[in-house]
Amino acid sequence: MNTEIKPKYKGTKQLFENPFFERLSRTHISIPLIIFFSYAGCLLYWNTQHTSLTAGTTIFLFMIGMLAFTWVEYMVHRYLFHMKTYTDLRIKMQYIMHGVHHEFPKDKDRLAMPPLLSITIATLLLLILKVIMGVFVFAFLPGFLVGYAAYLSVHYMVHAYPPPKNALKALWINHSVHHYKDGEVVFGVSSPLWDYIYGTMTANAGKGSNNSSSDLEVAQT
């Protein structure tokens, strides 16, 4: 990622001169949440009406789908959103995809992928996984999409609201470390699992240390 990007605690950035494309780059968080919970619900309904999968198999595949999303979330965030920017094209791509969020982390209109793009990706996943998994996709993909919606919810809350006074505060601290201390660590937003597995969890993250708490207070101002 471009290390020259410094976070601003208010404001926004126009990415496109064309007002249509600029509008497409923004979304209220409720829109993708409604879309993907509904998408997952429709797939589960299809599963119950048109497949012979048992309830146990459906629940198991649904949970595997949610877990799979946390891994994809980590990998996309680490290797795509924080791609190495050694060409002008990569610098531009990285900034549009994710750098603008690091520069304006409080811009609530850019805390989720534009719905048109995310719907397209979800539908392509459905078509590809249907070929690979057959009818199992109608239990697996709903879990994956609910995992995505859960990620969106957590990501929005850690940027828009003060941290809770319970164990979930660790998610706020983790993401504040990523944004305001070191953008090359703590890539998991909805879960720290893969940061622990791949060694990108720092000593201060998720433990409520004085340093992390101070950064969190600054981030919430």
Question: Could you explain the architecture of this structure?
Answer:
The chain has two domains: 138 residues, no CATH class; 60 residues, no CATH class. Helix content is 64%, strand content 0%. The radius of gyration is 18 Å and the shape is globular. The relative contact order is 0.16.
**Total number of beta strands:** 0
Fraction in helix: 55-70%
Please tell me the total number of domains. 2
CA-based gyration radius: 18 Å
Low-confidence spans: pLDDT under 50, at least 5 residues? 208-215
Strand residues, percent: under 5%
Question: What order do the helices and strands follow?
Answer: HHHHHHHHH
Gist of the model:
The protein is mostly helical. It has nine helices and no strands.
Map the helices and strands.
Layout: H1 19-24, H2 30-50, H3 55-81, H4 88-103, H5 115-133, H6 137-160, H7 169-180, H8 193-198, H9 210-219
Question: Features of this protein?
Answer:
about 220 residues, single chain, 9 helices, mainly alpha
